[in-house]
Amino acid sequence: MTRCAITNRKIVSSEEHAARQALLDLARRWTQAGVDYLQLREKDLEAAEMVSLARRILAQLSGSGTRLLINGRLDVALAAGAHGVHLTSGEGELTPAHVRSIFPEAIVSVSCHTLDDVRRSLDADFLLFGPVFEKSVAGEHVAEGSGIELLRQACLTAGHVPVLALGGITAVNTNACLEAGAAGIAGIRLFL
């Protein structure tokens, strides 16, 4: 089962220095636990801050099989020496083909929310599909889940491209995702 941990330093601490340190500690723990991919998703940081943080995380990953993907920032991935990039599947967004024209060895993952997104993203190395289950943050409803059946259809549509279930994934519902055809799981809170 493939596992992709996604960062969000703001849920581990509201104080910036403590949050960044906690993120580095999490990266080390995730690496030790055998997480396959770590997606650095700190969209509010400037490029230089992202590069610095990515390099520090890469040092934590050194010698492990965990690969670092930068969310939506090809420039940061290249500058930091990351293993690849995570993209969104919206029309007009950066595509796996464009990323590989600049960064040929990049691992490219894409977030998909519909079957059309999946069809548009079949040149990625793997897809994150969701949210599969309803998402709540601090008891507040955030997003409806698309359900196991749509995940199953996404996996069939993706064919040979691995699909990781995303959104509301827990230890309790992971097996249902795998039985639907998912190659693994991804999440932010899932790995905390």
Brief characterization of the structure:
The protein is built from 7 helices and 10 strands. It has helices at 16-32, 47-61, 74-80, 96-102, 115-120, 148-158, 174-179; strands spanning 2-6, 37-40, 67-71, 84-88, 107-112, 126-129, 135-137, 140-143, 163-166, 184-187. The two termini are 18 Å apart.
Mind explaining what this structure looks like?
- By secondary structure, this protein is an alpha/beta fold.
- It has one domain (2-191): TIM Barrel (Alpha-Beta Barrel).
- Helices cover 36% and strands 23% of the residues.
- It is globular, with a radius of gyration of 16 Å.
- 41% of the residues are buried.
- Helix residue percentage: 25-40%
Instruction: List how many beta strands DSSP finds.
Output: 10
List the helices and strands in order: EHEHEHEHEHEEEHEHE
Mean pLDDT value: 94
CATH topology: TIM Barrel
Number of helical regions: 7
Radius of gyration: 16 Å
SS class:
alpha/beta
Strand percentage: 15-25%
Name the poorly predicted regions: none
How many domain modules?
1
Label the CATH architecture: Alpha-Beta Barrel
CATH superfamily: Aldolase class I
Q: Which overall shape is indicated by the principal axes computed on the Cα atoms?
A: globular
Major sheet strand order: 1-2-3-4-5-6-9-10
Report the sheet with the most strands, covering strand number, pairing sense and barrel closure: 8 strands, parallel, barrel
* CATH classification class: Alpha Beta
Distance between the termini: 18 Å
